[in-house]
Specification:
nine-stranded mixed beta barrel; 284 residues; Lipocalin; alpha+beta; 9 strands
Length: 284
């Protein structure tokens, strides 16, 4: 059979055809192995609630049925008081069951911060002091984020406080100098596992928060697995580890929807300008 095939090949044509087939297969394999492109502007998105890119809210079910919305006034009466089932941002209702589980030492730190915030102090309010939200809190991306992707790095830019972080993909590792100089965003390195971006972040400033105003130590690390779960829907699975501050790893999932024109433009967040005006006017 091989002799018959060989006799039908003219001047090595079979070899050329075979080589072309191999090159084509290799090209298709390389194309399928290329990572997805996360580039674009995204807003927080809650699956199942609809909405447009995190900036639109769906109507309550009661309103959809023709009933008055929960906050509507009836007969001139004031709207009902908001529910207190969830903790408030000042901690006056305690900690959420889903909040990171703190060691006694760091729970005591949180209690000091809670009392300060309830008293109206801005001492532990990084947003009011125009400080970056830090990792992993910044991945809440309340006002949206822009992802800029290159071969050797991915940059995340948050509209809130113009916060920025970079994930290096070229195999570099943090130096001793970088580890000794922690930042709010930390030092992030990553690699691709198929269509998933796997990220490790270290060297995080201890004055930042895990979420809300949950404190952490200088030993905290953050792991992420970022991927598309559907066209335009980006998921970030976050795991926080801190042997000093946490009794167990804390996990959360952030989901974002990619924005389309004309909603794909972030605005400048002039926090320092606003803060300087308040200082001049004597409000702080």
């Amino acid at each position: 059979m091989r002799t018959l095939i060989a006799s039908r090949c003219a001047a090595g044509a079979c070899l050329l055809i075979a080589a072309a087939s191999i090159d084509s297969a290799a090209a298709q394999s390389a194309a399928s192995a290329s990572p997805p492109d996360f580039s674009g502007v995204y807003y927080p998105y809650t699956p199942g609630r609809g909405g447009g890119g995190g900036r639109q809210a769906t109507a309550p079910a009661a309103a959809q049925r023709g009933a008055a919305p929960a906050g509507a006034q009836r007969g001139g009466a004031p709207p009902p008081r908001p529910t207190q089932s969830a903790p408030l941002s000042d901690g006056s209702q305690g900690r959420s069951p889903e909040a990171p589980k703190l060691t006694p030492e760091y729970l005591a730190k949180w209690e000091v911060m809670r009392k300060s915030r309830i008293a109206g102090s801005y001492e532990y309010d990084n947003n009011a002091r125009c400080l970056p939200p830090g990792m992993p809190a910044m991945m809440g991306m309340a006002y949206g984020m822009e992802i800029m992707q290159a071969k050797d790095r991915i940059t995340f830019f948050s509209e809130l406080n113009d916060a920025l972080r970079r994930v290096y993909l070229d195999g570099r590792k943090p130096t001793a100098k970088q580890l000794d100089d922690p930042t709010y965003a930390g030092y992030s390195t990553g690699h691709w596992e198929g269509d998933t971006l796997v990220v490790e972040t270290v060297a995080l400033h201890p004055d930042s928060f895990i979420e809300g105003f949950t404190p952490h130590s200088d030993a905290m690390t953050v792991s992420e697995r970022i991927r598309f779960t559907a066209p335009g829907i980006l998921e970030d699975r976050i795991t926080v580890r801190d042997p000093k501050a946490l009794t167990e790893p804390w996990q959360t999932v952030r989901t974002y929807r990619k924005a389309l024109p004309p909603n794909d433009e972030l605005r400048e967040f002039a926090c320092a300008e606003g803060l300087s005006r308040e200082l001049v006017s004597g409000k702080h």
